[in-house]
Amino acid sequence: MNSSEKFHHALYVDHEKCIRCTHCVKECPTEAIRIVNSKMEIREERCIDCGECMRVCPQHAIDIEHDDLEQIKNYKYKVALFPAVFLGQFPDRITEDQVYASLIQLGFTHALEVEQPIGVLQNIMKKELKKNKSGVPLISSFCPAVARLIQIKYPSLTDQILPMKAPHDLVASYAIEQFKKQGIEREEIGLFYVTPCVAKISAVKTPVIEESSLIDGVINSKDIYNKVMHIADDVEPLKNKAFRNQLTKEGVQWSLTHGECWWLKKKTIAVDGIHNVIKFLERLENEEVFDVDFLELRACDRSCSAGVLMTQNRFLTVERLKKRAKKYPSAEKIMMTKGSGEFESLEAEVVAKPVQPRPLLRFGDDMARAMARMNRARSIMCHLPGIDCGACGAPTCMALAEDMVNGRARMSDCIFIQQLWQKDNKIDPKRAFERMEKKWGEGRFDPDCTKIGAKNEGY
What three-state secondary structure class fits 207? Predict the structure, then answer.
């Protein structure tokens, strides 16, 4: 993707449901959310589609744009591409054969787990790590939210990101190749990825690593899970092992924390949870991380098992996948018995273009003007309380100061400044209240016993 192009963002706000509670404002790791004119606003230049806002919203007012299952009807050959972590959600009574059969019954003609080319990825990763003589660790590109975080917030680290294609794009390439061998045209093939998170939707629409994605549609994992659960107990299990004959124990666990690290004979560190990742990247940028070869950084706690579009408990999902992994051979064993297997042709495709920095210019791209604005923001901070309450609609006092110098907020947005001005007779109480209502909405401060925690909640 050209550095001048905009990211695709899958998140959107249902303003009818939103009560401007500021849970999302405070949780967003990149300070991308504000309350402006009684509406929640996501600032696209800051958003990395991690989905943390969606996770913490008590009103379920934040949702995603995704492709509809009905779109598979536009293709003769309908391929479901799903991560192993999707299977980890199902209770023990539902077998993997039943899940595969359910996907076919839902209308797909083929179903493939995306981690099947993991052996190929492993080989290339080993070669790239061996070639790295920079003295700094290489960073996994598996999590698109982390890759975007680095692009905008830690642009000096982008050249440390190992530019390797995602498993879903590799298996998509493999599927197309297999269909072409049968004389089937690309236009007849629909490749649909069942995603566990928001970031992967955005990564398909505007990839960080690839020039473009081969995926034709991205489907919410929750929707497919619910549909499969509805029919799985009654379907005839699908015994066709060809759908997963290259799956390995590493592949089954690839999307879990340590999934990339545990088999590498190198010095590695795995960090999960977006706020933990940010703290670690701060240390890395400050050159406080030593003697490490590879970093596996994931936005979600327990990685993809906790994706915002997953439905089940992440700890149970992890345990189910670890148990399932024991049934599969190692990638090394498959390589020894089958050579490089069916995915040999993918080796040349694994490494993609380097990740380009897209720094977030908080005060604009004119250096002199940016310095002046930064100094002005620091001066404004002398007058703000530093409480970081979020009542101004920004996550912190510093964020409010930045918005002020950029012409997106004003001093009176701070309720404590309003109180001070009222004390000094610089503003009358009625005008102060009108400003508050403009920001938070008319009637927002009226008594309401139906709100969460009130005595008539839910009535």
Answer: coil
C-alpha torsion 274→277→278→283, nearest 10 = 170
Most confident of the following: 119-123, 224-228, 234-238: 224-228
How buried is residue 135: exposed, middle or buried, by Cβ count under 10 Å (0-12/13-18/19+)?
A: exposed
Distance of CA 400 to CAs 165, 381, 405, Å? Answer: 38, 9, 9
Question: How much is the CA Rg of the chain, to the nearest whole Å?
Answer: 25
Distances (CA, A) of 268 to 136, 137, 198, 293, 318: 12, 9, 27, 6, 20
Residue 83's SS3 state is coil
How far apart CA 142 and CA 114 sit, in angstroms, is 13
CB contact at 8 A, 301 and 273: yes
CA-to-CA dists, residue 290 to 5, 56, 137, 268, angstroms: 35, 35, 9, 11
- Specify whether the CB–CB gap between 261 and 294 falls below 8 A: yes
* Cα 100 to Cα 75, 228, 327, 425, distances in angstroms: 19, 9, 17, 70
241-247 contact pairs (CB < 8 A, 24+): 243/100, 243/110, 243/111, 243/112, 243/113, 244/96, 244/112, 244/113, 244/116, 245/342, 246/116, 246/117, 246/119, 246/334, 246/341, 246/342, 246/343, 247/84, 247/113, 247/115, 247/116, 247/328
Sign of CA dihedral 149, 352, 254, 84: positive
Q: DSSP H helical segments within 348-456, as ranges? A: 367-381, 397-405, 415-423, 429-440
Report which DSSP code applies to 164.
Answer: B
Strand order in the sheet with 268-272: 138-139, 294-298, 268-272
| DSSP per position, 262-330 | TT-SS-EEEEESHHHHHHHHHHHHTT---S-SEEEEESSTTGGGG-TT--S-HHHHHHHHHHHHTTS--
| CA–CA gap between residue 50 and residue 153 (Å, rounded) | 14
Q: What is the pLDDT of residues 410-445, one digit of tens each?
A: 999 999 999 999 999 999 999 999 989 888 988 888
Q: In terms of pTM, does the model score above 0.70?
A: yes
Provide the pLDDT for residue 126.
Answer: 93
The span from the CA of 377 to the CA of 284, in Å, is: 27
CA distance 235 to 93: 13
Residues in the chain: 459
Q: Which amino acid is at 60?
A: H
Token output for 156: 């000096």
Q: How far is CA 177 from CA 170, 301, 342, in A?
A: 11, 35, 11
- Beta bridge partners, 219, equal 194
Signed CA dihedral, 364, 369, 372, 373: sign only: negative
